[in-house]
Design a protein that fits this description.
- It is a single chain.
- The chain has 407 residues and is an alpha/beta fold.
- It folds into 2 domains: 274 residues, Crotonobetainyl-coa:carnitine coa-transferase, domain 1 (Rossmann fold), CATH 3.40.50; 82 residues, formyl-coa transferase, domain 3.
- It is built from 16 helices and 13 strands.
- It comes from Thalassospira profundimaris.
- InterPro entries: CoA-transferase_III_domain, CoA-Trfase_fam_III, CoA-Trfase_III_dom3_sf, CoA-Trfase_III_dom_1_sf.
- This is CoA-transferase.
- One of its GO terms (molecular function) is CoA-transferase activity.
């Protein structure tokens, strides 16, 4: 059984996270992904540790956990693209590829003859996806863009964190690089759509993706809250701007997320919590009114929630079909029976570490399941294979390129 994208070749000139996240997703679904890396150095994230993967003796390998995050299933080819000989090899591979993915600065690959104009002239069916901080045009196009700053510039931090009125309240970034990850996912979607167009028309195309655009796009309901009212939403901590009660509440031994999504669930919650009078109170009878009167409602709920432990609340509320859940640390996440049942952690064979763990792709296909994951490659692990089979070079030619430091 093969993956849904088997037969597709992706030439991956990207590094760090947004681009590699996209190419890893394509690799999971069966595409052959050739990752181009600098000889002797490779993707910067290879050294972004500790922590590093460990070998059978418990010693660190050269593969940082960060690198292992986004490079599963790829083949690594080391090429010095600053040298004409290296550029020619990359162009030859591009001529035989379906997709090129890159995240260099705007115009950064043109001087190497690896830009869209050059490669599409060689391969008109090529889908070429560029990822930058701010896009290929506009006043900010030449600025570098990094996830943290994009979360700030794109408004996410203005709605994340406790309000200034709370002790220690300040804007906060999300705990993982969501601007990069969302951009990687949008890149995957765009590439698949462009491939569908290519298959229908024979034409490739160029995809321009910007982290700032993506961060703006995923503001979702908060963006529409502003666009429909003209009032910028602020930080509410764990509270929801449009639903009440929908936040984390202290329990007798920790915290519990209460996610009451409609009036019926609110009545069920109040019955369990001993707050039977609240649903009939005109101030709290509907979600619209609960949002307007959250300042008086939330303290009443907090008083009730601290009377039981988190586990006691979960048992009682689940019986009443009230959405709720704990705030798990990652050890509890990966020990969760549902997470285990869904196979969200896998062990992959690795040349130096023996095996390395990976968080599985969450897509469950019925006809083309993701079953052939391979560990992220060692630096240059597949160089000889690709140079022979794709670039059609002889062993002598490869040896000369390696001696010259080009591969």
């Amino acid at each position: 059984m093969t993956g849904a994208l088997s037969g597709l070749r992706v030439l991956d000139l990207s590094r760090v996270l947004a681009g590699p996240w996209a190419s890893q997703t394509l690799a999971d679904m069966g595409a052959e992904v050739i990752k181009i890396e600098r000889p002797g150095a490779g993707d910067d994230t290879r050294g972004w540790g500790p922590p590093f993967a460990r070998d059978g003796n418990g010693d660190d390998t050269t593969e940082a956990a960060y690198y292992l995050t986004a490079n599963r299933g790829k083949k690594s080819l080391t090429i010095d693209i600053t040298k004409p000989e290296g550029q020619e090899i990359v162009r030859d591979i591009a001529a035989q590829s379906d997709v090129v993915l890159e995240n260099f600065k705007v115009g950064g690959l043109a001087k190497y003859g690896l830009d869209y104009a050059t490669l599409s002239a060689i391969n008109p069916k090529l889908v070429y996806c560029s990822i930058t901080g701010f896009g290929q045009d506009g006043p900010y196009k030449d600025r570098p863009g990094y996830d943290f700053m994009i979360q700030g510039m794109g408004g996410l931090m203005s709605i994340t964190g406790a309000p200034d009125t709370v002790s220690g309240g300040q804007p906060m970034k999300v705990g993982v690089a969501v601007a990069d990850i969302f951009t990687g996912l949008y890149a995957t979607i765009g590439i698949l759509a462009a491939l569908r167009h290519r298959d229908a028309t024979g034409e490739g195309q160029y995809i321009d993706l910007a982290l700032l655009d993506v961060q703006t796009a995923v503001l979702a309901n908060q963006a529409m809250n502003y666009l429909t009212t003209g009032k910028a939403p602020g930080r509410l901590g764990n509270a929801h701007p449009n639903i009440v009660p929908y936040e984390a509440f202290p329990s007798a031994d920790g915290y519990l997320i209460l996610a009451v999504g409609n009036d019926s669930q609110f009545k069920s919650f109040c019955s369990v919590a001993g707050l039977d009078d609240l649903p009939s109170d005109e101030r709290y009878a509907t979600n619209r009114k609960r949002v307007a009167n959250r300042e008086t409602l939330v303290p009443l709920i907090r008083q009730a929630m601290v009377t039981k432990t988190t586990d006691e609340w979960i048992v009682a509320l689940e019986k009443a079909n009230v959405p709720c859940g704990p705030i798990n640390t990652l050890d509890r996440v990966f020990d969760n029976p549902q997470v285990k049942h869904r196979g969200m952690v896998k062990q992959l064979d690795h040349p130096t570490a023996g095996t390395v763990p990976t968080v599985a792709n969450p897509i469950k296909f019925s006809k083309t399941p993701i079953t052939d994951e391979k560990a992220p490659p060692m630096l240059g692990q597949h160089s000889d294979e690709i140079l022979r089979k794709v670039a059609d070079l002889s062993d002598d030619q490869i040896a000369k390129l390696r001696e010259a430091g080009i591969v």
